[in-house]
Every structure is written in structure tokens, then in C-alpha cells.
Amino acid sequence: MKKLSIALALSLTLGFAVSTALAADGKALYAKCAGCHGADGAKTAQSKALKGMSAATVTTALEGYKAKKFGGAKKAVMEGQSAALSADDIKALAAYVSKF
Ligand code: HEC
To answer: Is 36 in the pocket of ligand 1 (CB under 6 A)?
Structure first.
């Protein structure tokens, strides 16, 4: 019985740690985007609002900017911003932005 409750407590703790780490990732990555796009993606001084975009739309944009095959008049700005993003970073950012 004691072993069972230890195992249960451990798996709950680990599960919580993993989901917290994933949730924090997109948020942490977005910190450097917020200046131009707003903390909630609603700022439109630089581009269309990110607020309301689906994860798929954000993924297409970020992958496209990174590959230099996407964008409008100011795409050079986002090519620089996306250059260092990994596939996992893009996934986490897209998930985070789609919840605005
Ligand atoms: C220095 C300002 C700046 C920063 C920082 C920045 N962006 Fe942008 N972003 C822009 C501009 C300008 C555009 C419009 C580019 C164009 O003309 O295609 C844009 C466009 C976008 C678009 C496409 C919007 C559309 O019109 O379809 C997405 C998605 C996006 N940014 C996400 C991000 C994410 C995620 C980050 C952080 C990793 C980020 N941006 C950081 C300035 C910025």
C-alpha cells in the first residue's frame, strides 16, 4: 500500500512538472515577440493582429519566414525573428498564440 501511494504521488508530480514545462515554453518564447505584437497579440502597429490566429496559421507564417518564403513588405523583420526558432519552438509558440 505504501509503495502504491509513493508511486502515485511520484507520477502525479512528474505529470505536473511535464505539463508545466510545456506550458511555460511557449509563454517564455513569446516574451521576445510581445514588444511588437503585444502581450495578447492584439497590437497592430507592425502587422496583422496575431490574436485570433489558429496554431496552423501561426505555424505556416513562422516556418515560412524562417525559410524566407512567406510574408509581406516587412518580412525581413520576421525572417530575423524566426531564424533561430527550432521546430519545437514554433510548435510551442503556435500553441501559445492560438489561445489569445
Ligand atoms: C521587431 C518587431 C517584431 C518582433 C520582435 C516579432 N515580430 Fe512578428 N511580425 C513583425 C512584422 C513587422 C510583421 C509583418 C511582416 C510582413 O510584412 O510579412 C510580423 C508578422 C508576424 C506574423 C504573421 C502575421 C501575418 O500577417 O500573417 C506572425 C505569425 C508573427 N509575426 C509572429 C511572431 C512571433 C511568434 C514572434 C516572436 C518569436 C514575433 N513575431 C516577433 C514584427 C515583429
So the answer is: yes
Residue nearest to atom 40 of ligand 1 (CA): 33
The C-alpha angle with vertex 69 and arms to 65 and 75, in degrees rounded to 5, equals 50
CB 55 within 8 A of CB 94: yes
User: Which of 14, 31, 72 shows the shortest CA–CA distance to 48?
Assistant: 72
At position 100, the amino acid (one-letter code) is: F
pLDDT at 24: 47
Beta carbon of 94 within 6 Å of any ligand 1 atom: no
Q: What is the pLDDT of residues 24-66, one digit of tens each?
A: 499 999 999 999 999 999 999 999 999 999 999 999 999 999 9
Tell me how many degrees the CA angle 26-32-36 measures, rounded to the nearest 5.
115
Instruction: For residues 47 and 99, give the distance between their C-alpha atoms in angstroms, rounded to a whole number.
Output: 18
